[in-house]
Amino acid sequence: MPRIVCLWLGLLLSFSGFGQSDQDFLIIPKPAKMEVLDGRFMFSNETTVRFPPDNAELKTLADPFIRQFQAATGFSLRTENRPGATPTATLLAFVPVSDANLGDEGYRLDVTTTTITIEATKPAGFFYAIQSLYQLLPPEIFRSTPADLSVNWSVPACRIEDKPRYGYRGLHLDVARHFFPVSFIKKYIDLLALHKFNTFHWHLTDDQGWRIEIKKYPKLTQVGSRRKETLIGHYYESDPQQFDGQSYGGFYTQDEVREVVRYAKSKYVTIIPEIEMPGHALAILAAYPEFGCSGGPYETATKWGIFTDVLCPYDRTFTFLQDVLTEVMTLFPGPYIHIGGDECPKISWKKSPFCQNLMKKLKLKNENQLQSYFISRIDKWVSSKGWKTIGWDEILEGNSPAIRVSPGATVMSWRGIEGGLKAARQNHDVIMTPGNFLYLDHYQADRSQEPLAFGRFTPLEKTYSYDPTPADLPATAQKHLIGAQANVWTEYLKTANQVEYMVWPRAAAVAEVVWTPLDQKNWPDFTRRLPALFKRLDALGVSYSRAYYDVVAETRPQPDGTLQIAMTTQEETAEIRYSTDGSTPTAQSVRYDRPFDLTKPTSVKAVTVKSGVVIGDVQVWDFAVSKATGKSIQFATIPTRPKNIDPALLIDGRYGTTIGYLEEMQNVAGVKTADLTATLDLAEPQSIQLVTIGLVKATAGAILLPKQVDVAVSDDGRTFRTVKTVSMDPRERGKKAIIRQTLTFEPVTCRYVRISARNVGKVPAGMTQAGKDAWVMVDEITVE
Ligand code: TNX
User: Fold this and answer.
1) Ligand 1 close to Cβ of residue 454 (< 6 A)
2) 470 confidence band (pLDDT: 50, 70, 90)
3) Cα separations (Å) of 550 from 345, 659, 691?
4) Cα of 482 from ligand 1 centre, angstroms
5) Ligand 1 pocket check for 327: Cβ under 6 Å
6) Atom 8 of ligand 1 has which residue's CA nearest to it?
7) 441 ligand 1 Cβ < 6 A
8) pLDDT band at 236; cut points 50, 70, 90
């Protein structure tokens, strides 16, 4: 009797005596339906592949599988029309069927002990069946050289019937901020296809570089593909900002683009090119200043963000864009072209007499309507060529009954989900790409342990949890929600390895979001399949992130003044090993069984270990332990960064970090314009002689050193006497940092300690943020 396999497949398999094991059925994205059968299908040199003789497309589809199989296993599968196939040999058969249930991308994969039968209505379905077959095989199948002889080249008998939840399943890559060569783009597409994505959104142009050859406008690549240098580190890293002084550039020739498009097609991936307008267009303006309102000169951007110089809606600008899009249309298959539309400041239009006249002539009320005019004029032209427009959700802004994008325009919803849902209710097709779930440039783990990234925090589980279609969306709007896409912006991703690190495994979670039916989606079951994914990615040479295995440490200050450390890792079947002596932990280090206490400042390092092998990256923390540990603390003015602050954050044993954008600094407390004053209650009189406090300096973000820090003590918490005052210069600029200030004084016995960091108030003249309200921000306070 076949068993219906539902959520807890792993449990079922672990005691099944039918030749399957928990190494089986590790397909990502999880198929819609899967039944486990008895026995296994063994591949051998005698296995024959059969497809209808007159079906060239199926042969083209099967050939790469046969080649890869040979490379990894050393077996050469026979195709049936080759002589010598024996009737007893096992058979892999491709059988076209007509079955409306399967749709264009669905398939059935029937595995018995002697035969694998793949049924589908369209080539894409066969292609996805092969991707599932790869993943039923051992991960070594992805090797480019034969694996060792011990690998069992078999697949478990089963019956899979599968089709995608959404028709649009996308992954994006920004090649403008950093450029990636054709070889990498092909590898990226390989991985997309393996996880049953069908769309690659190629973000080809932006302020920092134009990356596609346009024959009619050679300066786009001659000038616009290069920038003279690049910002070092994070946006607010240094004040003034520091640049690397290295010219940077790159672009794809039209031949290369054609080659990539052809390659993607062979993997059933459609490429959508994005040509950004009217904002994010500095690279165009650098090459052709006549399309800007001020006439220039302009230069290709050397840092990130939003720039006020944008395309000016002259007729000649539209002629230029139409010419560019005409060439783009000869290179890509269609039907979609992405025209950007996001983050277009209106400042240059406000200043431009041309724009103001145009607005009058067109009876436009404001510059938002001018943006709408811009987008709808291009959209109309694109539609007239039989193509479909996609734009970021801003393309609906400023629409009026008179001037609006065509109903056929598709909206990519990136600023949360509301814009997308609204567009769907207005009957626009919508692709969901909400930043807080699907932006893979965000951190996926503790930022203090990670390579530099854009800022926010979107761990694997958060990405996995995303459901594009809210249950309460009316059915008429639901049908417009055609799918979802993860975006990969590359401001901080300079190398191919860094891109892969950010994308995998999170893109595998996205694959399951867009392919797997909601009732089959299950986080614990996904994590059961993760180790297999990692092995596949190892075999494919992908630099994925192991953050899923990271040890997470929690500090728990105790009333007795010790600091308890509790550690966890998401991978429950793994052990945690750690050290407290500064050494790198190994599989032989102390095993973590229960929380432990620190009595002095300590560097703790930890790692996850499975079957005696280290599987995660080493995590390192320096914990503070002092007379402040386990005591209580109060603020005179409640800090507003972070929101809803717990004052104990300043004595929780954890130092802060300034990594990320200003709002994303961790374990720091900030007050605007006022002083930051914290009073510690040491519970009983104690002798103290030293206080340390971390002072954040990020002057580009108006976070200044205080003009003075003082320490005062008290016996009753009411009358304080100052024991130490240190002055400093709030105008000190330079690299963003947390500066640890040590304040020593004659030993004094007291119960209360008050530390004040005095705010300069307004940012002094001559500084980057001159005149703005200044912040004082501090991290961990220690007392000795
Ligand atoms: C916003 S998402 C942008 C991009 C940036 C990204 C960084 C979108 C349509 N615009 O230009 O690269 O944030 O996450």
Assistant:
1) yes
2) confident
3) 41, 19, 33
4) 21
5) no
6) 342
7) yes
8) confident
Residue range 550-623 forms a domain whose CATH class is: mainly beta
pLDDT of residue 89 exceeding 80, the answer is no
What dihedral angle (degrees, nearest 10) is formed by the CA atoms of 63, 69, 75, 78? -20
Residue with tokens 């007159």: 54
Secondary structure E strands in 545-589? 551-557, 563-569, 575-579
**Residue-level pLDDT at 274:** 98
CATH code reported for the domain at 18-162: 3.30.379.10
Q: CA-based angle 642:648:649, to the nearest 5?
A: 45
Structure confidence at residue 471 (pLDDT): 85
Contact 444, 498 (CB under 8 A): no
489 lines ligand 1 (CB under 6 A): yes
pLDDT over threshold 80, residue 760: yes
> N- to C-terminal Cα distance for the chain?
71
Identify the residue whose C-alpha is closest to ligand 1 atom 7: 489
Is the shortest distance between the CB of 304 and ligand 1 below 6 Å?
no
**Per mean pLDDT, which of 147-151, 249-253, 645-649, 656-660 is the most reliable?**
249-253
Mean pLDDT over 481-489 rounds to 98
- What is the structure's pLDDT at 46? 86
284 in Cβ contact with 337 (< 8 Å): no
With beta carbons less than 8 A apart as the criterion, state whether 637 and 619 touch: no
Q: For residue 722, how far is the Cα from the chain centroid?
A: 49
Q: How close is the Cα of 344 to the center of ligand 1, in Å?
A: 12
The percentage of the chain sitting over the pLDDT mark of 90, rounded to a whole number, equals 88
Pick the more confident residue, 92 or 19.
92
Two structure tokens written together for 424:
């769907």
Give, as one character, the DSSP assignment of residue 335: S
Active centre residues (catalytic): 343
The Cα–Cα gap between 246 and 299 comes to: 15
Ligand 1 atom 2 nearest Cα:
414
- What mean pLDDT do residues 532-561 have? 97
Q: Do domains 550-623 and 632-783 have the same CATH topology?
A: no
Is the Cβ atom of 25 under 6 angstroms away from ligand 1? no
pLDDT at 10 (0 to 100): 38
Q: Burial of 101 by CB count in 10 Å (0-12 exposed, 13-18 middle, 19+ buried)?
A: exposed
Q: Could you give the CA distance from residue 229 to residue 209 in angstroms, rounded to a whole number?
A: 11
* Confidence label for 87 from pLDDT (cuts 50, 70 and 90): low
**279 membership: H or E segment, kind and range:** none
Q: How far apart are CA 474 and CA 203, in angstroms?
A: 32
Distance (angstroms) between ligand 1 centre and the Cα of 549 equals: 29
CATH T-level topology, domain 168-539: TIM Barrel (3.20.20)
The token pair at 102 is: 């399967």
pLDDT tens digits along 705-717: 999 999 999 999 9
Q: Where are the domains of the chain?
A: 18-162, 168-539, 550-623, 632-783
Which ligand 1 atom sits closest to the C-alpha of 491?
A: 12
CA distances from 717 to 395, 559, 674, 748 (A): 58, 20, 21, 15
What's the 489 CA to ligand 1 centre distance in angstroms? Answer: 7
Residue pLDDT, tens place only, 365-423: 999 999 999 999 999 999 999 999 999 999 998 888 889 899 999 999 999 898 999 99
Ligand 1: residue whose CA is nearest its atom 5? 489
**pLDDT band at 86, cuts 50/70/90?**
low
The model scores a pTM over 0.85: yes
273 Cβ contact list (under 8 Å, min separation 6) = 202, 204, 212, 328, 331, 332, 337, 338
Nearest CA to ligand 1 atom 12: 489
| pLDDT confidence band for 14 (50 / 70 / 90) | very low
What superfamily does domain 632-783 belong to in CATH?
Galactose-binding domain-like (2.60.120.260)
